[in-house]
Amino acid sequence: MTFARTTDPIVAIATASGRGAVGIVRVSGARLAPLIEAVCGRALKPREATYLPFRDAVGEPVDHGLAIHFPSPNSFTGEDVLELQAHGGTVVLQLLLARCLEAAAEADPVTGRPRLPGLRVAEPGEFSQRAFLNGKIDLAQAEAIADLIDASTEAAARSAGRSLSGAFSREIHTLRDALIHLRMLVEATLDFPEEEIDFLQKADAAGQLTKLQSQLAAVQQRARQGALLREGIKVVIAGQPNAGKSSLLNALAGAELAIVSAVAGTTRDVVSQTIQIHGVPLHVADTAGLRDSSDEVEQIGVARAWGQIESADAVLFLHDLTRAEQPDYAAADAQILRGLQGKLPASVPVLDVWNKQDAAPTAAPARGIALSAKTGLGIEALRDQLLAMAGWQSVPEGVYLARARHVQALGKVETHLALAASHLAAQAQLLDLLAEELRLAQNALNEITGEFGADDLLGVIFSRFCIGK
Ligand SMILES: Nc1nc2c(ncn2[C@@H]2O[C@H](COP(=O)(O)OP(=O)(O)OP(=O)(O)O)[C@@H](O)[C@H]2O)c(=O)[nH]1
Ligand SMILES: [Mg+2]
Fold it and tell me: What SS3 class is residue 83?
């Protein structure tokens, strides 16, 4: 969708496709009264549900249901909105949608002009886009709507709800207000250069900036947690054949997803499953055992395993404790470790997991954790470790769902504030540069709530919405 600030009236089926008890057709635009008259056969009281037949062109009922009129500006989009709640069949809703389009084009008996000129089917996200453009919600809230719909865990849904209610936006506004205050101070000083040092010192500009930085750090932490809830991380289980990788995936998932057998080289294809730990989605991939093989299919499996490892956010390097002390086993593990170190950036954690503790006579080596995929011993400890590897910390005040975009923008603010601090601390107090960094910091903050921003950015965000939202 290209981002156009059109005000054409729009219509869409707002509920999911398929069969359901109730389905909703939603219309938004200016002055819907003539359309309402045609489809509902009467005027509607504002914000009151009325049970009536929806009428076709000759007045025959298409369906019976509830009609609600939300006159502008007290509606989701800020425009006039009509909601028709009909029976939730695909055909019924399509008929109703078609009827709205048809009625819009019909000549109004009073004016002789179309009842609702230009009514068209909405683009994905266009209702939310209008809500944003009409100041009903800010950009972070609009994104939270999509995130709430897409949420795959309860924790994600709760934090999306928190963002939607404006908790995240309020924190951004608090930061912005503090930043504006500081900017005014600096800009004022620029106008009276002879007093500059004294003035900024008296107002404790440095103290204000430090406080702003620590407030930002707190918001960044919660936003990072929110992004984690939304996106999760990818965990790859790797190791030699027979180490128990498939058994571990099954133990983590609590289901027999991957084939387990005593035959080395059982797993060929990657088997992936998303599990939740405290609401954080972890996308866990079981891979083929890593070894040189002359079997063509196994070779492909091993190549796929390395492909998975390269895209991992964290790796569980599995070892068989019952064989760990055998020299050739240790040598093969050492070779795999070199491979891991060669392919993974330093930021990707690799956890050594010593499996088959139930059957192992020896104590586990000091690094990593020991467990038994078979008995479940140590699996809870692994879950906690996985959360820590994902960077999860439970934060006291609750997380709001954030996106990678928000985390990036906050990172930009951080950079500009750090530069501002260095200009302020410099002997000569580089006030012009200081002012500029503060301005850039504020721009980055505004990107989050969309108080201003490039139109193409808005287009990208809203086009990922579903139609009718
Ligand atoms: N005693 C014991 N046996 C285990 C444990 N975990 C796995 N095994 C056994 O080890 C063998 C290999 O297990 P898998 O889970 O198939 O191992 P894998 O690493 O997926 O093997 P490949 O797919 O061939 O690479 C099976 O016979 C399992 O029953 C464990 O914790 N304790
Ligand atoms: Mg396997």
Answer: strand
DSSP letter at 262 equals: S
Indicate the pTM of the whole model. Answer: 0.66
Burial class (CB in 10 A: 0-12, 13-18, 19+), 28: buried
Find the ligand nearest to 289 CA. Answer: 1
Q: Nearest-CA neighbor of 431 among 183, 210, 176, 175? A: 183
Helix (H) or strand (E) holding 223: helix 205-231
Ligand 1, atom 30, residue with closest C-alpha: 356
350, HSE (Cβ side, Cα atoms, 13 Å): 20
Model pLDDT for residues 33-55, shown as the tens digit of each residue: 999 999 999 999 999 999 999 99
Given a contact cutoff of 8 angstroms between Cβ atoms, the answer to whether 53 and 59 are in contact is no
Question: Which ligand minimizes its atom distance to the CA of 242?
Answer: 1
Interhelix angle for 167-191 vs 154-164, to 10°? 40
What digits encode the pLDDT tens for the residues 258-282? Answer: 999 999 999 999 999 999 888 888 9
DSSP one-letter string for 132-192: HHTTSS-HHHHHHHHHHHH--SHHHHHHHHHHHTTHHHHHHHHHHHHHHHHHHHHHHHHHS
Count other C-beta atoms under 10 Å from residue 13's C-beta.
22
Q: Please give the helix or strand (H or E) that residue 339 lies within, else none.
A: helix 327-343
Collapsed DSSP state (helix, strand, coil) of residue 302 = helix
Say how many Å lie between the CA of residue 242 and the centre of ligand 1.
5
Residue owning the nearest CA to atom 14 of ligand 1: 244
The structure tokens listed for 7 are 């005000």
**227 closest CA partner among 235, 215, 219:** 219
Q: Each residue of 272-290: b (16+ CB within 10 Å) or e?
A: bbebebebbbbbbbbbbbb
- Ligand 2 centroid – CA 247 distance (Å): 7
Strand-strand pairing, 61-70 and 80-88: antiparallel
For residue 73, cis peptide bond before it (omega within 30 degrees of 0): yes
361 burial (CB, 10 Å; 0-12 / 13-18 / 19+) is: exposed
Gap between the Cα atoms of 354 and 266, Å rounded: 20
Query: Could you tell me if residue 189 is left (phi over 0), alpha (psi between -120 and 50 degrees) or otherwise beta?
Result: alpha
> Which ligand has the nearest atom to the CA of 266?
1
For residue 282, the CA-to-ligand 1 centroid distance in Å is: 22
